[in-house]
Amino acid sequence: AQKVTQAQTEISVVEKEDVTLDCVYETRDTTYYLFWYKQPPSGELVFLIRRNSFDEQNEISGRYSWNFQKSTSSFNFTITASQVVDSAVYFCALSEDYMIYNQGGKLIFGQGTELSVKP
Amino acid sequence: EAGVVQSPRYKIIEKKQPVAFWCNPISGHNTLYWYLQNLGQGPELLIRYENEEAVDDSQLPKDRFSAERLKGVDSTLKIQPAELGDSAVYLCASSLRAGEVDTQYFGPGTRLTVL
Predict the structure, then answer these.
(1) Considering A78, A99, B86, B113, which has the largest number of Cβ atoms within 10 A of its Cβ?
(2) What is the rounded distance in angstroms from the CA atom of residue B23 to the CA atom of residue B69?
(3) What is the pLDDT of residues B35-59, one digit of tens each?
(4) Distance CA A38, CA A83 (A)
(5) Which residue from A94, A97, A27 is spatially nearest to B97, judged by alpha carbons?
(6) B46, B36 in Cβ contact below 8 A?
(7) Exposed, middle or buried: residue B64 (CB in 10 Å: 0-12, 13-18, 19+)?
(8) d(CA A116, CA A113)
(9) What single string gives the DSSP state of each residue in A33-101?
């Protein structure tokens, strides 16, 4: 079964602190895709990153970095030097390749982690 | 480039009334998705279209929900009749290619309140 677990429901930090959001996933095969989305109070889900299961390189984009570890089925997201504008709900999501699985292609989301960055 | 457009942004209705949501995907995107997001939860897929064809509607409660995507562009999601438990945010997303998993881009959603 496909499943995404974000064990941290809420995190509160003070501005300029580093923060890591955890994501653990379950999937039935070797071909899959992982995503992170940000949902600010306005409600729109904003795409942050996409990773396929064959690319285990970590990625850095400005203050954002992602650590993908297949051995532990984790895809964690770190914000360095957090800012108030980072306050939002962050979702990790999984998709299986629907060329292989009939109902792949849809995103399976975790419950989300609400990040609050205080000034 | 314009993003995914949804309307209305907010809708308040009484139970047993019908309601419809509209979505215009990003230009050129042939795959369109409707998701349901309950409070404090991640979105869950209701239906996926590739062009005009609904290729995955296994999670759509067909007794009261219906959707259409005429001409493979805009889409409408309808609930008739609405129930109290339908109060949620309805999100539309679109992606470019049908042949592989691609990045989905989301609209702002329609927040439905059923009284």
Answers:
(1) B86
(2) 9
(3) 999 999 999 999 999 889 898 888 9
(4) 14
(5) A97
(6) yes
(7) middle
(8) 10
(9) EEEEEEE-TT---EEEEEEETT----EEETTEEEEEEGGGTEEEEEESS--GGG-EEEEEEEEE-TTTS
Residue-level pLDDT at A98? 60
Contact check, Cβ <8 Å, B106/A109: no
CA A70/CA A89 separation, integer angstroms: 24
- Closest Cα in chain A, distance from residue B107 (Å): 6
- The pLDDT profile of chain A, 119 residues, written as one tens digit per residue, is 789 999 999 999 999 999 999 999 999 878 889 999 999 988 899 999 999 888 888 889 999 999 999 999 999 999 999 999 999 999 999 987 665 555 557 899 999 999 999 99
Residue type, B28: G
Q: Which of B45, B48, B89 sits opposite A43 (nearest CB)?
A: B89
Helix, strand or coil, per DSSP, at residue A27: coil
A107 CB within 8 Å of a chain B CB: yes
Query: What sign for the dihedral angle of Cα B51, B56, B60, B63?
Result: positive
| Cβ atoms of B32 and B90 closer than 8 Å | no
